[in-house]
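Quick one: structure tokens for this chain, please?
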Amino acid sequence: MNKETMQGKLTRKDIRTAAFRYMFMACNIFNYESQQGPAVVFGLKKALRKLYPNDEDYRASLDNQFKYFNTTTWMGNILLGAALAMEEKDGLKALDAVQNFKTGMMGPLAGIGDTLIWVLYPTIMGSIAAYMALEGNPIGAIIWFLLNVFFLFVRFKLFDMGYDSGLKLITALGDKLSVFTEAASMMGLTVVGALIPSVIKMTVGLEFATGDVALNLQTGVLDQIMPALLPALLTFGVYKLLASRKVTVIQVILMIIVLALVCSFFGILTV
């Protein structure tokens, strides 16, 4: 048998198994040398074994997949599905193309995935669910759970889509990836800005009194300048602190707790 002869074609079950194995281990065996490389090998090794009955060919393919790989795990499904299709079609001849394809596309696709999946989706849905929980409504948590179940099937579909479309899906997008990412970022910032006054509550309890006339600092001054001015300023301050990289998220949370306790004790802020 020629060294690059392929035996057996992948079934839909093989594709789903590869997708599940990768998704299950994508973050569990992450390391700072090859990052998701071990998870890629764990995910694809059964499918690759079916493609390469010869041990030497199989090891060559695994070594190629073990190289550095890091992208949003959802987007990784598309890339790995396409990589399997390429190796199924061309065997060892496709190894260089597979590696170049993964290296070239994992960055742009991570931009989309990080924006939509790690920022936009949990920020919007998490904030809505948390706000409904604060109001004593469990529907937000139920929706959050159902959406995560739904998106599990979407992730399987992305792997299928990568496998079925191969290179055509990614190369057809071209420069549109950066435009799409920027548009999604703008939408995410708009949604986060709209959530600030409904989620963050800061009310000043101070009043200025002269004779029989009393002026509430919150309703008489701050709300006249801009409603939800203090929540907006607090959000901006937290953003600047985190952007400076001089403090950690935990430190910022503790600072907010201390500020709230002190201001509440002295009557500066009220519920």
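The mean pLDDT is 82.
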